[in-house]
Amino acid sequence: MFPRVPPLLVAPILLAGCPGPTARLADSAPQPYEEPSVDPGPEGHAFTSFSGTTEWRWAWSKQPGEYACDLVWETESTASQHCEGCDWAFDVTFTYQPDQSVDTDDCFATVDNAETDFTWGLGMSSDYLGYGFPFVMYYNKASGYWQGSFYADWQYPDLVWGLGSLDRPYTQNGATYYYSANWYGKATVQ
User: Would you tell me how many other CB atoms lie within 10 Å of the CB of residue 47?
Assistant: First the structure.
């Protein structure tokens, strides 16, 4: 069994997008090191809402697209937060969707917040640390700081964000296995 994955990974991990039979939102999350895609919308626009869907996928399987854990949350917010250097920031409520989720009893061991509702502070930096790449920021309640945590593709008002590995092949004892530990979200931000 793999170790428990924290709710957010601090260091970016290479994303390997590969569509599978349970891929509902899109084929893959934004990829690191690609040309950034940013359209922040009208200058001076006051952002007032965030709504969409988020998935957590985990697997160590012999077939790509087979996930022992594929959890889905609806996301919504109308309350904003302050995030220095962000285009916008919200307290986002994640509402678990059991009828859209798959859990073969492995989810609690792979991620915090499995099968529960929760709230995260999320913001957007369209030019993260001046490098020209968009990142979704996460508010770390323990440290009290915002941190760049998810790769993003933002074409106002559409946001796609994510982090992790999806269907990444590994060979062990002559057999190929596919590892997934992947957050993926899609939202409308206006």
Answer: 19
